[in-house]
């Protein structure tokens, strides 16, 4: 049996998963890869931290140079996250002819070109399956198995933390903050959970997926982003009354060569398969012009599911000849130049919840504004006053399909009405047709 030495950069949630899988499934991994894998070094910040796994003390280090200068280490697994020093370490490891496996979507979505070019220049293999949707084989799915297709559209629930939070809010009527704490404890959330709840994590993942699916470079700044922090239990309740669920969707559509890229909370029919993706599960629904509709479903976060993708990438590298250069098929994402639509141009239906003064004529004022902006209303629902003393009521408006720019203009005009107390929430509705 051949032996190979590898190093991990990071032993947090994902690093732990990788460590456990490499030990628990040692026999299977040896047979499948043809190698006995030895983790010879692990880079961490704090040597004394309890990590939930028994790791021999002598393999932990805080000095990256020990890994870089050890020629017997052939492969480096970057699971530390963030841009720096992860970027610098990966570039230097590649210059030292070490193959790379990473789970770092933030880096790939923002500085991806530089690391891919370095892998090409040095002829080393570079795998990143775990960077999107944890254990779901979506990167290889798109890069290997869907290349016969022109991808028309892609809808993803690609953030486990927010899906966990929205699921608990919907099914157990729990409040946002307590559920976020649970997601952190389960190891789903990023080191800074703002990245999850404000949609940045999903934005990175959508940029990676769309660039592969559409064969085009995607600038992260062209991906529209909204998080889930404005979603209230009452929105969940209304959605349910309308036969809908609220999900944080990452949406990419190719509209005759112009693409839409957006991440935002979305009301979707509860009959759609994505509506039944709960907990930290992720799913990516893709339509290809040959294959039709496809859905990939699985755990999108957590130590073992993410570790599964990382270790599979390691095996995939070992199955090739690691001593020979240029074994990686370079997947180009600059095959086509595609213009990205501004969010103002996007068409959707909208759910708009407002608080208004409960007095005659208010409804008329509001519907006149939408009418004058050529926004057609499908329904208007008024619920009773909060209590006898209150002079305010909640109005929920559902529009027909319309351009975002017209909605924004209508909203600005609503703010000018003295009878409109607040625009509480606006959520796009996706009908999938
Ligand atoms: P984490 O729990 O915060 O672990 C990060 C690890 O990296 C820790 O062991 C930390 O060391 C080490 N580290 C960080 N900065 C370092 C530095 N400057 N020098 C040395 N060591 C450093 O993160 P994670 O959840 O495992 O995520 C790791 C990566 O996987 C990220 O790119 C993340 O986006 C991605 N990812 C995560 C998941 C998930 O479910 N968590 C899923 C898919 C992808 P100490 O422990 O000593 O502080
Ligand atoms: N924080 C991420 C999530 C981890 O919740 O999906 C997986 O990338």
From TrEMBL:
<keyword id="KW-0028">Amino-acid biosynthesis</keyword>
<keyword id="KW-0560">Oxidoreductase</keyword>
<dbReference type="Pfam" id="PF01842">
    <property type="entry name" value="ACT"/>
</dbReference>
<dbReference type="InterPro" id="IPR016204">
    <property type="entry name" value="HDH"/>
</dbReference>
<dbReference type="Pfam" id="PF00742">
    <property type="entry name" value="Homoserine_dh"/>
</dbReference>
<comment type="pathway">
    <text>Amino-acid biosynthesis; L-methionine biosynthesis via de novo pathway; L-homoserine from L-aspartate: step 3/3.</text>
</comment>
<dbReference type="InterPro" id="IPR036291">
    <property type="entry name" value="NAD(P)-bd_dom_sf"/>
</dbReference>
<keyword id="KW-0791">Threonine biosynthesis</keyword>
<dbReference type="InterPro" id="IPR001342">
    <property type="entry name" value="HDH_cat"/>
</dbReference>
<dbReference type="Pfam" id="PF03447">
    <property type="entry name" value="NAD_binding_3"/>
</dbReference>
<dbReference type="InterPro" id="IPR005106">
    <property type="entry name" value="Asp/hSer_DH_NAD-bd"/>
</dbReference>
<protein>
    <recommendedName>
        <fullName>Homoserine dehydrogenase</fullName>
        <ecNumber>1.1.1.3</ecNumber>
    </recommendedName>
</protein>
<dbReference type="InterPro" id="IPR019811">
    <property type="entry name" value="HDH_CS"/>
</dbReference>
<keyword id="KW-0486">Methionine biosynthesis</keyword>
<comment type="pathway">
    <text>Amino-acid biosynthesis; L-threonine biosynthesis; L-threonine from L-aspartate: step 3/5.</text>
</comment>
<dbReference type="InterPro" id="IPR002912">
    <property type="entry name" value="ACT_dom"/>
</dbReference>
<feature type="domain" description="ACT">
    <location>
        <begin position="351"/>
        <end position="428"/>
    </location>
</feature>
<dbReference type="InterPro" id="IPR045865">
    <property type="entry name" value="ACT-like_dom_sf"/>
</dbReference>
<keyword id="KW-0521">NADP</keyword>
<comment type="similarity">
    <text>Belongs to the homoserine dehydrogenase family.</text>
</comment>
């Amino acid at each position: 049996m051949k032996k190979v030495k590898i190093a991990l950069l990071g032993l947090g949630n994902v690093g732990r998963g990788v460590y456990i899988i490499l030990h628990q499934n040692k026999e299977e991994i040896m047979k499948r890869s043809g190698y006995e894998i030895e983790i010879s070094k692990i880079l961490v910040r704090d040597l004394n931290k309890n990590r939930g796994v028994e790791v021999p003390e002598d393999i932990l280090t805080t000095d990256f140079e020990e890994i870089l200068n050890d020629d017997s280490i052939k492969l480096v697994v970057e699971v530390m996250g963030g841009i720096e020093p992860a970027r610098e370490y990966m570039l230097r490891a590649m210059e030292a002819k070490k193959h790379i496996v990473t789970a770092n979507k933030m880096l790939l979505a923002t500085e991806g070109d530089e690391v891919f070019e370095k892998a090409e220049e040095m002829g080393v293999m570079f795998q990143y399956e775990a960077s999107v949707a944890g254990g779901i084989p979506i990167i290889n799915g798109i890069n290997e198995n869907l290349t016969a297709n022109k991808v028309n559209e892609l809808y993803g629930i690609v953030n486990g933390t927010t899906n966990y939070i929205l699921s608990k809010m919907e099914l157990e009527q729990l409040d946002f903050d307590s559920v976020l704490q649970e997601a952190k404890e389960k190891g789903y959330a990023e080191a800074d959970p703002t990245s999850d709840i404000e949609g940045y994590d999903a934005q990175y993942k959508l940029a990676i997926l769309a660039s592969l699916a559409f064969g085009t470079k995607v600038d992260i700044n062209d991906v529209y982003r909204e998080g889930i922090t404005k979603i209230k239990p009452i929105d969940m309740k209304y959605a349910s009354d309308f036969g809908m669920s609220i999900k944080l969707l990452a949406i990419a559509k190719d509209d005759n060569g112009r693409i839409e890229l957006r991440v935002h909370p979305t009301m979707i029919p509860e009959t759609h398969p994505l509506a039944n993706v709960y907990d930290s599960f992720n799913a990516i629904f893709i339509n290809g012009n040959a294959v039709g509709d496809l859905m990939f479903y699985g755990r999108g976060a957590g130590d073992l599911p993410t570790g599964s993708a990382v270790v599979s990438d390691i095996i995939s590298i070992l199955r090739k000849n690691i001593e020979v250069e240029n074994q990686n098929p370079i997947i180009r994402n600059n095959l086509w130049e595609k213009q990205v639509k501004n969010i103002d141009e996007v068409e959707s239906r909208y759910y708009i919840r407002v608080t208004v003064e409960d007095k005659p004529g208010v409804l008329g004022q509001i519907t006149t504004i939408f009418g004058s902006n050529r926004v057609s209303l499908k329904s208007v629902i008024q619920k009773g006053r909060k209590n006898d003393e209150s002079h305010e009521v909640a109005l929920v408006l559902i529009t027909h399909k319309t351009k975002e720019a017209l909605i924004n203009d209508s909203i600005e005009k609503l703010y000018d009405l003295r009878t409109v107390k607040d625009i509480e929430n606006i959520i796009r509705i996706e009908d999938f047709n």
